[in-house]
């Protein structure tokens, strides 16, 4: 074709594109200028630091944290001015925190360096001067021609040139990229697939023009110019089907050749290394707010002491006593400068009220605590061999604060294990392997369940429908070494093993195989099928119009052996029916709706014949759009829209996707915990609603409200919204219901169903430029519904829903859970809004969702334990940790503040430097860290048995201002007890047995001893779950304090210039009154907290405290209600052949008393589907009317 014409078509707005010279060979003279370009080598660098920049870069990042920077300033102030405490007291804790964090980050980066080196040094084969050369992967360059053998990993992003397979295809698995273990088929460039040797491929003259690197794994736009002699080059479009990604593995193909186009950090895999935006939990935000409060308290203390100091020194004899005369320079010093210096000195003296070690303790707690999820054997799935994954530990405690759960349906609530149930062709229903009177009829091609058997004319449509199912797909046939030849017989045809990235397609191909038509293979662009008469039919595959979630359909254009050209199209009914001009639409629509009500996934199939001239026009249209480098997807969508029209409807299929085990139990438990569950799916309303009933999202008592396109067509959007608003607010008197009212007995439960089209209208700005009124009204309706179902949702609409809730005035904590790549937009859209959680189910649609998620679980049922148990424990533990840290530092510093009133505001410290330094690092750090890792205030079984306990910690209950103020005042009370208790004790008994008088260091030692024992025993009183580790750490910390004090004050240390604590601790212990003071003051200090707990438990107990008191959450009969519905085993042979899978949704659903019938809003069908029970086993079990 004319290359200049193609260039003209794509020249406008192509932007910057890269040109790659294949094999570094210059194009023939006169074609175009040879402009060598520089690209990065193939080294992968995932490490953050190098040997040279680790220290400065790491220090810069750590001191960007406000707390670290604050303590650095305090340390510098201590170095610059004369302060009452040594710089060591601030420098050593800061050094400890910085060092621990640096070691942790350095070790993690060393592991990344190690992995990078292993990847960069692996051997790669490439073509050089017609020979195969081996070199390290890091030396690969853009333009090199690479050879990859079977089971090897692609070293960079390659354009697929040729393979050892005759049809120019290869099979690839992308498990390391998106987790999809299914084999994907990639296609070589049409003009290069015949090059099979090194010499042939080295003689290739070609250039590749493509887009600049971008991270989307599933999008690629480019073209290749192949030069043959001196003629104009042949231009071929390049898409994602021609691109082999770094990290993918070659399967079932001996070898392939490809040209490197993206290397190193420009590969799509490397571009996906980019870290997600940092999410901050509600606990961390509360912690920062509390820190600001304590900083204000610190400044107030320093200001008060500075003012009082100068008030105290206003009298001359106090400012300049006879024993401490000032020098002349001191007398001449500026008053404001002196006051400012004193203010800084007081800031240094009281700065320990800000807990520097709290941040490192919180980080350690989150990091170590995340392993409890990965180690949980109950959350390990033996069928898949998968366990839970924690991709970020920063949000552990948010699992205990979830208010909304947004879940996908297919693969998340269901197994994504499809089984072909039936097909409907022009009103005639066909069921593979029909069961009659308990006998399986394996050789029957189908049974008409509605009218008489189809006539001769209908038989042609029937066979055309089966051929369409055999041809309209992207299924591959797995090579079977036990089968020789191209499966030329029916016997060999039945041994076909199909693989595809879509379980639906495999189910359809296997289903039509049981109806007499078998798809054999795709070879040399010809698709082979085996018909009922055991004859091989060959169709040339001309074009594939790929499936996408927006069009919701796919098409193929094929040419039969007789020369007829067909376009076969299959897709959702909403995308097929509007494009149909002929066929029995009403009968098929009725059957589709009936199957949807029964929870089956439905697809419609249509076709049209193309005349050669029409096909030529389609070819030109597709060729023009496929070679575009800009807006190719948009142009292809417009082209597909023109091609897929004026179709003839053939029929529809029904595929069943079983509900996951214990999905209903999980949703019921989440609702009882006060969590609102929303299902976001692309399925039909009837299909999704049936699944929602089966999984107990909707109950028999739930009144369904519809906000759908059909409703809006009958009334305006404004009227529908206001009508729904009146309905849901009628019971609550215009007050939004509480999150937990969804299951209340005295209020009507409402369930809302909304479709994608209605959501678009709600989100669309109004004529006056605002859409907030409709959005707020919609949110009010949703808040008052116990469950919401969003059907016919595109992936971006799922993100819109989550974002809408996140931006509402309550700013609730949300969790979005999905299993496939189409669910990733739910998190990518809202990653920068608030603090959404993102969990994923490791499903059959791949691991792209798992890679992008914060947490990944094997099955939906594991969500129950992750939220109600792990989330509950995480929140309880870290909230106690934060409050305890502030409490013990108030106890620590407030006596120092009181002491200034008794020392003339001279900035004399109450405690020795060693004790100032080690209080937060050694004496009180390990007990709270262990508590925050192991505490279980109620048992795991109790939390699973009584989900309502989750409500006690909702809305950040343990870090509210009321709780924070209680802990602060408790610290103030204890500090008053420590200081004045020791003061009055010393006032009356200040002499030891040998007549010596206690000094100020002994006084400070007594206060410090009482404080360490009180704060440690306070934590012991709060501990409900005791193990030998708790005993060892708590009592060991107290023992360590005593041993340290004996050694610090009992030995003369040669490295100290002075030793003011020598013999002080031993002298204190030799005094009987000191022992009495310790016991008495510790008891008085703990008494208010004990009394408060006893009174609150007796008068205003929470649900958790009642459970702790009784030791049991619910009676046994309530436990049974939480178990999943299980129906008796059916004697039907079809049930027997289902193997180990749990019984299908229809059985669980229809045999339950509570869910015996669907409400009238779901359509005409009021009972169970006939094909599973009444049709399958008419004589072997209880029948229900259709």
TrEMBL record:
Binding residue positions for Mg(2+): 408, 410, 819, 823
Main location: membrane
Compartment(s) where it occurs, according to its Swiss-Prot or TrEMBL record: Cell membrane; Early endosome; Endoplasmic reticulum membrane; Membrane
Catalysis: reaction(s): ATP + H2O + phospholipidSide 1 = ADP + phosphate + phospholipidSide 2; a 1,2-diacyl-sn-glycero-3-phosphoethanolamine(out) + ATP + H2O = a 1,2-diacyl-sn-glycero-3-phosphoethanolamine(in) + ADP + phosphate + H(+); a 1,2-diacyl-sn-glycero-3-phospho-L-serine(out) + ATP + H2O = a 1,2-diacyl-sn-glycero-3-phospho-L-serine(in) + ADP + phosphate + H(+)
P-type ATPase N-terminal domain location: 36-90
Keywords recorded for this protein, A-Z: ATP-binding, Cell membrane, Endoplasmic reticulum, Endosome, Lipid transport, Magnesium, Membrane, Metal-binding, Nucleotide-binding, Phosphoprotein, Translocase, Transmembrane, Transmembrane helix, Transport
Subunit structure, interactors included: Component of a P4-ATPase flippase complex which consists of a catalytic alpha subunit ATP11A and an accessory beta subunit TMEM30A.
The protein, known as: Phospholipid-transporting ATPase
């Amino acid at each position: 074709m004319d290359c200049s014409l193609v260039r003209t078509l794509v020249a406008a707005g192509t932007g910057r594109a890269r040109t790659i010279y294949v094999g570094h060979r210059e194009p023939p003279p006169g074609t175009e200028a040879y402009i060598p370009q520089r690209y990065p080598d193939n080294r992968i660098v995932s490490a953050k630091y190098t040997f040279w920049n680790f220290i400065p870069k790491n220090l810069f990042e750590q001191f960007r944290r406000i707390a670290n920077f604050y303590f650095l300033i305090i340390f510098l102030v201590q170095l610059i001015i004369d302060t009452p405490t040594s710089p060591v007291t601030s420098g050593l804790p800061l050094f400890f925190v910085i060092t621990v964090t640096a070691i942790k980050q350095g070790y993690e980066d060393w592991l990344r360096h190690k992995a990078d080196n292993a990847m960069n040094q692996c051997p790669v084969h490439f073509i050089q001067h017609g020979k195969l050369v081996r070199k390290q992967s890091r030396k690969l360059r853009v333009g090199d021609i690479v050879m990859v053998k079977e089971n090897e990993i692609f070293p960079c992003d390659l354009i697929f040139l040729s393979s050892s397979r005759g049809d120019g295809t290869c099979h690839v698995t992308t498990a390391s990229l998106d987790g999809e273990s299914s084999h994907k088929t990639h296609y070589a460039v049409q003009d290069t697939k015949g090059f099979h040797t090194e010499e042939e491929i080295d003689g290739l003259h070609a250039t590749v023009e493509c887009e600049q690197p971008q991270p989307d794994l599933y999008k690629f736009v480019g073209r290749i110019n192949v030069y043959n002699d001196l003629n104009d080059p042949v231009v071929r479009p390049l898409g994602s089907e021609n691109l082999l990604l770094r990290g993918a593995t070659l399967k079932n193909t001996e070898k392939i050749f490809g040209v490197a186009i993206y290397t190193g950090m420009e590969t799509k895999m490397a571009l996906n290394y980019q870290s997600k935006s940092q999410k901050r939990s509600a606990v961390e935000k509360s912690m920062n707010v509390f820190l600001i409060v304590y900083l204000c308290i610190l400044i107030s203390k320093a200001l008060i002491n500075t003012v009082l100091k100068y008030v105290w020194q206003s009298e001359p004899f106090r400012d300049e006593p006879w024993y401490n005369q000032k020098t002349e320079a001191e007398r001449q010093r500026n008053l404001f400068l002196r006051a400012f210096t004193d203010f800084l000195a007081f800031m240094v003296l009281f700065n320990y009220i800000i807990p520097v070690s709290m941040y490192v303790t919180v980080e350690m707690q989150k990091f170590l605590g995340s392993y409890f999820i990965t180690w949980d054997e109950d959350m390990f799935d033996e069928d898949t061999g998968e366990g839970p994954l924690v991709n970020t530990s920063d949000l552990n405690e948010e699992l205990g604060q979830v208010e909304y759960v947004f879940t996908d349906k297919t693969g998340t609530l269901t197994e994504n294990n499809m089984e072909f149930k039936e097909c409907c062709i022009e009103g005639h229903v066909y069921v593979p392997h029909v069961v009659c009177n308990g006998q399986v009829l394996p050789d029957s091609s189908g049974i008409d369940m509605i009218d008489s058997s189809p006539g001769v004319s209908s038989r042609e449509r029937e066979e055309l429908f089966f051929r369409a199912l055999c041809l309209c797909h992207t299924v591959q046939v797995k090579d079977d070494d036990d089968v020789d030849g191209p499966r030329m017989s029916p016997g060999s045809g039945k041994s076909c093993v199909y693989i595809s990235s879509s379980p639906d397609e495999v189910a359809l191909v296997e289903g039509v195989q049981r109806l007499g038509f078998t798809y054999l293979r795709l070879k040399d662009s010809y698709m082979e099928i085996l018909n009922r008469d055991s004859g091989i039919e060959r169709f040339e595959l001309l074009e594939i119009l790929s499936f996408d979630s927006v069009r919701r359909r796919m098409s193929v254009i094929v040419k039969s052996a007789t020369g007829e050209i067909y376009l076969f199209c299959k897709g959702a009914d909403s995308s097929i029916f509007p494009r149909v001009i002929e066929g029995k639409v009403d009968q098929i629509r009725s059957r589709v709706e009936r199957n949807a009500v029964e929870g089956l996934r439905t697809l419609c199939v249509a076709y049209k014949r193309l005349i050669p001239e029409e096909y030529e026009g389609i070819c030109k249209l597709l060729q023009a759009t496929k070679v575009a480098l800009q807006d190719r997807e948009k142009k292809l969508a417009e082209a597909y829209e023109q091609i897929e029209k004026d179709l003839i409807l053939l029929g529809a299929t029904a595929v069943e996707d079983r509900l996951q085990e214990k999905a209903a139990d999980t949703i019921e438990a989440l609702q009882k915990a006060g969590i609102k569950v929303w299902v976001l799916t692309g399925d039909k309303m009837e299909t999704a609603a049936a699944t929602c009933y089966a999984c107990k999202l909707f109950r028999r008592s739930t009144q369904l409200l519809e906000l759908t396109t059909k409703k809006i067509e009958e009334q305006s959007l404004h009227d529908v919204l206001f009508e729904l608003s009146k309905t849901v607010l009628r019971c609550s008197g215009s007050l939004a219901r509480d999150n937990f009212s969804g299951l209340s007995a005295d209020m009507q439960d409402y369930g809302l169903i909304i479709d994608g089209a209605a959501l678009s209208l709600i989100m669309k700005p109004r004529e006056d430029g605002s859409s907030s009124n409709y959005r707020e009204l919609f949110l009010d309706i949703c808040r008052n519904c116990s469950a919401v179902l969003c059907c016919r949702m595109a992936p971006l609409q799922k993100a819109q829903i989550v974002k809408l809730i996140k931006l509402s005035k309550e700013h609730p904590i949300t969790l979005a859970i999905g299993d496939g790549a189409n669910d990733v937009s739910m998190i990518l859209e809202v990653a920068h809004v608030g603090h959404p959680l993102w969990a994923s189910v490791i499903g059959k649609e791949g691991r792209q969702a798992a890679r992008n998620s914060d947490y990944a679980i094997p099955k939906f049922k594991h969500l129950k334990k992750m939220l109600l148990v792990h989330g509950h424990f995480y929140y309880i533990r870290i909230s106690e940790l934060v409050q305890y840290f502030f409490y013990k530092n108030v106890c620590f510093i407030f006596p120092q503040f009181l002491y200034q009133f008794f020392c003339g505001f001279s900035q004399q410290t109450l405690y020795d430097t060693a004790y100032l330094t080690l209080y937060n690092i050694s004496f009180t750090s390990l007990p709270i860290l262990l508590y925050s890792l192991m505490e279980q205030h109620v048992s795991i079984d109790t939390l699973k048995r009584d989900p309502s306990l989750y409500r006690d910690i909702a809305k950040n209950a343990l870090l509210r201002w009321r709780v924070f103020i209680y802990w602060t005042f408790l610290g103030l009370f204890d500090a008053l007890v420590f200081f004045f208790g020791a003061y009055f004790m010393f006032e009356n008994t200040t002499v030891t047995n040998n007549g010596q008088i206690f000094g100020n260091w002994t006084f400070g030692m007594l206060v410090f001893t009482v404080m360490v024992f009180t704060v440690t025993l306070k934590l012991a009183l709060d501990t409900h779950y005791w193990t030998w580790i708790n005993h060892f750490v708590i009592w060991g910390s107290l023992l360590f304090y005593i041993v340290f004090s004996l050694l610090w004050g009992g030995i003369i240390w040669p490295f100290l210039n002075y030793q003011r604590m020598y013999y002080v601790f031993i002298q204190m212990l030799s005094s009987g009154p000191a022992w009495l003071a310790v016991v008495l003051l510790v008891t008085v200090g703990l008494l208010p907290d004990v009394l408060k707990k006893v009174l609150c438990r007796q008068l205003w107990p929470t649900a958790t405290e009642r459970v702790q008191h009784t030791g049991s959450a619910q009676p046994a009969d309530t436990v049974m209600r939480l178990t999943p519905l299980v129906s008796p085993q059916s004697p039907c042979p079809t049930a027997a052949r289902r193997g180990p899978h749990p019984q299908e949704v229809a059985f669980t659903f229809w045999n339950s008393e509570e869910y015996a019938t669907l409400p009238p809003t779901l359509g005409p069908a009021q009972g169970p589907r006939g094909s599973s029970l009444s049709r399958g086993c008419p004589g072997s079990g209880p029948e229900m009317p259709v």
